[in-house]
Structures are given as C-alpha cells and as structure tokens.
Amino acid sequence: MRPKRTFPSKLHCDRRARSTQERASPRAPTYPPASPALTPRERDVVELLVGTGLSYKQIAAQLGRSEGTVRTHTERIYRAFGVHSRLELIFACQALRDARSDAA
C-alpha cells in the first residue's frame, strides 16, 4: 500500500512563490554615487576598456604592460565600481558621467 501523499500548506506555497518572485525580479544595479578611487593607471585602463573595446592583450600592448597586469587592474576596477563585466562597467561609467553633468 502506498503512503498517502501530503500537500504543502497554502501558507508554505505562498512563501515559496514570494521568495521565487524576489529572486527572479531584476535588481537595479547599484553604482557608486561618486567616482571610485582609482590609480592613474587604472583610469587609463578604464578609458581603454570603455572607450575603445580593445582586448586585454591590445590594452597591454598600448600601455606597455603585461596582459596579467591589465587583468589585475580590471579586477580592481570592477571591484571599485561594484560590477562584474565590461558591459556593467560601461553602464556604470555612463551613469557616473550623467550624474556629473546633472550636478554641473
């Protein structure tokens, strides 16, 4: 004989649906309100990452650094801006420029 199947309570289903919705809802990216503190070399890397779309290898050649150094700078830049990709960095820089132009 098979055991009787029990169904979760309505309250449990509501909680589960709500938590699923919260996880699925798109979060607005949180960009730093002010310009993050970057070194001059990191600023150079940001300009090349965002403005030109060059690869790490091309950026390294242009700056006279190794590709590993450019990757390290990029990691620190991403951390400073609170982003995880180049596209997010582009949006963060754009938001920062917009905020500066609105303030001026």
Largest sheet: none
* Helical amount: 55-70%
Order of helices and strands: HHHHH
Oligomer: single chain
- Alpha-beta content class: mainly alpha
**Helical element count?**
5
Strand content: under 5%
Number of strands: 0
Q: What's the average pLDDT? A: 80
**Radius of gyration (Å):** 22 Å
* Overall body shape: elongated
Low-confidence spans: 28-33
Distance between the termini: 77 Å
Descriptive terms for the model:
104 residues, mainly alpha
In brief, what are we looking at here?
This protein has five helices and no strands.
What do you see in this structure?
With 104 residues, the protein is mostly helical. 65% of the residues lie in helices and 0% in strands. The chain is built from five helices and no strands. The protein is elongated, with a radius of gyration of 22 Å. The N and C termini lie far apart (77 Å). About 6% of the residues have low confidence.
Write the layout of secondary structure elements.
Layout: H1 10-24, H2 40-51, H3 56-63, H4 67-81, H5 86-103
